[in-house]
Design goal:
mainly alpha, hpI Integrase, Chain A, 3 domains, two-stranded parallel sheet, two-stranded antiparallel ribbon, globular
């Protein structure tokens, strides 16, 4: 047989022998194999998940695939009773309804494929997110502590999820056959073997084959991610890896000897990570850094990106449509007419500018975090009566110039005598006695 042609498309050939777990023996039954192959055409991950769910259910009920199909057709009440007994046993063991209901999904899919009508599944009341009641979004300083527990590669993985908002399945894939490539980072350049970015924030083009919605989209990498990623690439290059446009953005670790030969002989041997490796690499760091009484899953990193950008949106740093677009969401019919199309240079420049403004909300280092001094200065200028536009013109003034401006606006100059507020629009205030109040009000002062 010839080698698979290069490209991003998943292989069309389904290999039952590559199923991992004790339930792969179910595929020896043609009834199950036909159903599993049909599911695999769309998603191999979904097919294997359904197979495990079906296998566990059959084990607990002591049924075979042929027997469960026969009961659904000829004795549905008996099958209903068996499923209710199984659900009740799991509930007594303390399992949530959301957990129990998942085990019926595989059987429901099998019935749909073989066109078997059955309505006897137990009626449960799953509460969405019940198992996540203790999960909350990390604060930037908490994410910084998580990054401190990670290797260089782990930090890159975590920052791609937390700052660029990509899903784990973008960086790797279920069986390690695909993933983000260096060619998907158009701003990445190599000069005499040294990597650098022509623009930061740098562009990340997620191809449709890696997108959950099966639509390509653009996101960006923050300055903090750029620094970590360039260090990671230099580390890989220093280890002897020849980096090409087709190289994985995040690669599997170097192997030697028998392990290397096994990797080279494998069907998928392009160096991409599996999604399991992606999530497990950051999981241990999250668990070692999580505050008491809180739970963090690897997916909380993507939630961090979404939440921090939402805060930036509230401050006018980024538009809602762009925030949804760089998270790879379907923003609805309206967004398809602008950010949902292939971006031109003008839109890309504007999107990069907005993300740069919002990236301060994502950064965990002191350099990238919101400049507290600048915010304080902007607040002082506002108190002095300057409009936001006027305040911008003074943001680069020296501290001495700012103090002089405040004295003039609020105190009437160097002498420190309060300046009246009649007709000048300035927000001057001072405490007065009742005897003084009448004359000051007649001059244009207001009571606050």
């Amino acid at each position: 047989m010839g080698k698979n042609p290069p490209g991003r498309a998943n292989p069309a050939v389904v290999e039952p022998g590559r199923v991992i777990g004790r339930h792969k023996t179910l595929l020896s039954d043609p009834v199950v194999l036909q159903w599993w192959e049909a599911r695999s055409l769309r998603s191999r991950l979904s097919a294997d998940q359904y197979l495990r769910q079906l296998g566990l259910l059959l084990e607990r009920t002591a049924l075979t695939p042929a027997k469960v199909l026969a009961l659904a057709k000829k004795d549905p009440d008996r099958l209903r009773d068996l499923l209710i007994q199984d659900a009740a046993k799991l509930k007594r063991a303390g399992r949530l309804d959301s957990y129990i209901s998942k085990f019926f999904e595989g059987l429901k899919s099998l019935f749909r494929f073989h066109r078997v009508a059955f309505d006897g599944f137990p009626v449960l009341s799953p509460i969405k997110g019940a198992s996540l009641s203790k999960e909350r979004i990390p604060r930037p300083e908490e994410l910084g502590r998580v990054l401190d527990h990670l290797s260089l590669r782990g930090r890159v993985l975590a920052l791609f999820m937390a700052h660029a908002g990509v899903r784990p399945g973008v960086l790797g894939s279920y069986q390690g056959e695909n993933g983000l490539r260096l060619s998907d980072l158009p701003d990445l350049k190599f000069e005499k073997g040294k990597p650098s970015f022509t623009d930061v924030p740098f562009t990340i083009r997620v191809p449709a084959s890696l997108s959950k919605t099966r639509v390509s989209y653009v996101t960006f990498g923050s300055p903090q991610l750029a620094t970590a990623f360039l260090a990671y690439l230099e580390d890989r290059g220093g280890g002897g890896e020849a980096l090409t446009p087709e190289s994985p953005v995040v690669a599997s670790n170097i192997t030697r000897g028998v392990a290397l030969r096994s990797q080279q002989n494998a069907r998928y041997s392009k160096g991409f990570l599996t999604t399991k490796v992606v999530v497990e690499e950051v999981r241990s760091a999250l668990q070692s850094s999580v505050p008491e009484g809180v739970r963090w899953r690897p997916y909380v990193l993507r939630a961090y990106c979404s939440t921090r950008l939402l805060l930036a949106e509230g401050q006018g740093r980024i538009s809602r449509d762009l925030r949804e677009a760089i998270l790879g969401h379907d923003g609805g019919s309206s967004s398809r007419y602008h950010v949902g199309k292939r971006w031109g240079e003008e839109l890309l420049v504007e999107a990069r500018r907005e993300y740069a403004n919002a990236s301060e909300f994502l950064e965990t280092n002191t350099q990238g975090r919101t400049n507290v001094a600048a915010e304080f200065r902007r607040t002082l200028l506002g108190v002095a009566g300057l409009s936001p536009e006027e305040a911008v013109a003074h943001m680069e003034d020296s501290n001495e110039d700012i103090l002089a401006l405040l004295r003039t606006r609020l105190l009437g100059g160097e002498g420190g005598t309060p300046k009246s507020g009649n007709g000048n629009g300035h927000a001057a205030q001072k405490p007065v006695s009742l005897a003084e109040a009448e004359s000051l009000l007649s001059e244009g002062w207001t009571f606050v």
